[in-house]
Amino acid sequence: MALATAGTALPAAAQACDSMPSWIQFACNRADQIWSTGNDDLYVTGYAWHNRSAYSADKIKSFREESWGGGYGRSLYDSDGDWHGLYGMAFLDSHGHVEPIAGYGYQSIGRVGNNLRFGIGYTVFLTARPDIFHYIPFPGVLPLASIGYDKATFYATYIPGGSGNGNVLFMFGKWSF
Fold it and tell me: Which Pfam families match (predicted)?
């Protein structure tokens, strides 16, 4: 966030954050920082593995595990080397329906050399599905793991569930510009 100095004004988004309740100001300021100073990211989705112990063989055969889609985001690495990102994507769900998703991701990053990195963190998001609330958006929080090299990053998250629902390992990639 840009700081105000004598005779200069805060950017409009930063001013809007400062007028919010204190408990949300940090998140608003971080989102403003990511959007205004982060890198452009291209997301590509591709695969959703359904845990074989949670579904019958016939149900597994009915699922699409190819989850083709993509999206756009912006992200940055903070002074501690941790990753913060804002993203929006759309992909085909297990039944071939379009599932939009938009959210924030955070990962603590470990580095091996200059270009190889591993991350572990979480994502907070809004999504919508026809089989859950008939496409009325709903929130979620999921774990997020990654391995990256230079500008490419491979991500995975696990959607928990019970017998016959959830239990999906969702994988996607990102290219940063």
Answer: PagP (PF07017)
d(CA 13, CA 54): 45
Bridge partner list, 94: none
95 is known as an active-site residue:
no
Instruction: State the catalytic residue, choosing from 50, 67, 84, 146.
Output: 50
How confident is the model over 93-113, as pLDDT tens digits?
999 999 999 999 999 999 998
**134 annotated active-site:** no
Which two structure tokens, joined as six digits, stand for 48? 């959703």
Average pLDDT, the chain: 90
Which of 67, 94, 146, 176 is flagged as catalytic? 94
Structure tokens at 59: 């149900």
Selecting among 41, 75, 84, 93, the annotated active-site residue is: 93
C-alpha 174/C-alpha 151 separation (Å) is 8
Structural class in CATH, domain 39-176: mainly beta
How far is 86 from 72, CA to CA, in rounded Å?
A: 9
Q: How many CB atoms lie within 10 A of CB 35?
A: 14
Q: What is the band of 5 on the pLDDT scale with cuts at 50, 70, 90?
A: very low
Prediction pTM value: 0.85
Cβ–Cβ < 8 Å for 141, 147:
no
